Amino acid sequence: MESLEQEVAVAMPRIGDKAPEFKAITTQGEINFPADYKGKWVILFSHPADFTPVCTSEFMTFAKLEPEFSALNCQLVGLSIDGLYSHIAWLRTIKDKIEFKGMKNMEVKFPLIEDITMSVAKKYGMIQPGESSTKAVRAVFYIDPKGMIRAIIYYPLSMGRNFDELKRALIAMQTADAYNIATPADWQPGDDVIVPTAGSCGVANDRMETKEEGITCTDWFFCTKKLSLEQVNNPAHSN
Ligand code: BEZ
What we know:
Blueprint: H1 4-10, E1 22-26, E2 29-33, E3 41-46, H2 53-71, E4 74-80, H3 84-97, E5 112-114, H4 119-123, E6 138-143, E7 149-155, H5 163-179, E8 193-194, H6 201-210, E9 215-219, E10 222-225, H7 229-233
Parallel strand pairs: 3-4, 4-5
Antiparallel strand pairs: 1-2, 3-6, 6-7, 8-10, 9-10
């Protein structure tokens, strides 16, 4: 039988849940989460520890891509089980000394939460005791503008994240919301998208027999349509 402490440590919110609320100290001041980011997407991510190489390469990449996430109405918020002064010292070292893949002088401008008590990490299931009971795994929570958890990705301590995928996932969810579609395997912006499956025999018949304008069906349940890159880039014009 697991102790209560262990049970709490592995509890985690799920897709479709309201993002757990918390107040925290960060490298950009205090935050009230997720209320401070209402109306924006948020990527809340954890990393194992400051002054470690994989995390350093990730933070430099997050810092480089931050303007692209910001253009997608998405705020980045990081977390590790380290104190504020460690965070500040590490971010200064990254800016002053570290070079990676042509990146240097990278300034991390998004908030990095201090979570020495692990209270936020435990709320979000970022501690996975089989991997480490003192370090957060590389968790990524996508939280939508209404404060709901929409996607969760986990990586182990040893593996740096794929940033193309982090960005692609955000765009795919924003596109699905804007156009009421789904995105097929390996979808990239500009590729054809999936039309919601027919919900009645009548619609299934229409799809196969009458043929709906602009929709291609290989069977009644597998229908796609074009969605241009321009449409993906302008989701506000979806209606
Ligand atoms: C790293 O960021 O380099 C790292 C952190 C914890 C375990 C292994 C690698």
